[in-house]
Amino acid sequence: MLRTLYPPIEPYETGTLDVGDGHVIYYERSGTPGAKPAVFLHGGPGGGFSSVHRQLFDPALYDVVLFDQRGCGRSTPHASIEANTTWHLVADIERLRLLAGVDQWLVFGGSWGSTLALAYAQAHPDRVSELVLRGIYMCSKAELDWYYQFGVSQMFPDKFERLTALIPEAERADLLRAYHRRLTTGSTAEQIVLAREWSRFEGETVTLLPDTKMAAQHDDDQFALAFARLETHYFVNNCWLAPGQLLRDVGKLRGIPATIVHGRYDMPCPAITAWSLHKAWPESELHIIEGAGHAFSEPGILDRLVRATDAYAHNWGSALASG
C-alpha cells in the first residue's frame, strides 16, 4: 500500500529571523519539541513552503523547521533579489539551526531544494545527519537548456509557445536572459504579466498528469512574481556554483545516509541528473519512480519520501534507546 501524507498539523511555533542585508525570513516549527530535528528546503528558487509540507514528517517523531527563503512566501522584502544567493541561503540555514539549538539535523530538499540541500551539506557536512532529496537539480547549463530552450519544448510545444510568445523572436535563443532582463526592469504590472507566464509554464509541466490545483498556485500574481524573479536571478548566475561543483564535491558527503527520489518522467529535472549523482555517490539510495513526474505529491514519489522520513526517524529512536 502506498504511503500518503500525515494528517494536517499546525505549527507549535512561528517567528521571523532578521538575517541581515535587509532580509527577514519567516519560519515555523512543527511536530514534537525535542524530537528528531529536521529542516525542510522548498523549491523554486522562490517557491516558498506550504502547510502540506509539514505532513511529510511523522509529527510524533520529528521536530521540523520550515522556512520561506529570502524574497518569497512570508519572508520580506517580497521578490527581492538583493543579497540573495545560494550562499546567503546556506548561511540562513545555519542561523536557523543555531536558533533551533540542534547540533545536527535531517535535511529534506526537493527540486531547487535538493540543490540547496547539497550545497549546505557540502559546506557543513558535520551538521547533517541524513539527506532526503527529491527531483535532483544541479543548475547546469544542460539542465537549463533542456527546460528553457530545447527538450521540454518538444514535449509541451503548446505551453512552450506561450512562454516564448512574450519575447521578441530575435531574443528567443536565450529565453532565460530575455525573461530576466524584463523581470528586473519595467513596472511591477509589466513584470507580473511575464512572471505569470514563466510560473505557469512550470506549474503545468511539473506533474505527469494535469493538476489544476498546482497550475492555479503558479498563476497567483504574488507567487509568480517572486518565483519568476528569483528563478531567473539564480539561473542566469548559475546559482553561484562552479560548473559541476556539486558532483565534484560529493566526497564531502561520505558517511551521510541519503535517499534520492526522482520521477522517471520529471520534465524540469531530467532523471540523468539523479542518476549521475548516484553514480558519483554509490552509497546513496536511489529510487527512480515509474509513472511519475516532478512533483512531490505524485503517489509513487510521495510514498517513497514518507517511507524515507519514517525510516530515519525510527533509526534515530532506536539509537537513542540503545544509547
What would you say this structure looks like, in words?
There is one protein chain. The protein has 323 residues and is an alpha/beta fold. The chain has 2 domains: 13-140 and 239-322, Alpha/Beta hydrolase fold, catalytic domain (Rossmann fold); 142-238, no CATH class. The protein contains 12 helices and 8 strands. The protein has helices at residues 86-100, 112-123, 141-148, 152-155, 157-165, 175-183, 188-203, 212-218, 221-236, 245-248, 271-280, 299-322, and strands spanning 13-20, 23-31, 36-41, 62-67, 105-110, 128-134, 258-263, 285-289. The chain has an 8-stranded mixed sheet, with helices on both faces. Helix 11 links the parallel strand 7 and strand 8. The longest helix has 24 residues, at 299-322.
Characteristic key phrases:
eight-stranded mixed beta sheet, 8 strands, globular, 12 helices, alpha/beta, Rossmann fold, 2 domains, 323 residues
Question: Short summary of the structure?
Answer:
The chain is α/β, with parallel strands linked by helices. The protein has helices spanning 86-100, 112-123, 141-148, 152-155, 157-165, 175-183, 188-203, 212-218, 221-236, 245-248, 271-280, 299-322; strands at residues 13-20, 23-31, 36-41, 62-67, 105-110, 128-134, 258-263, 285-289.
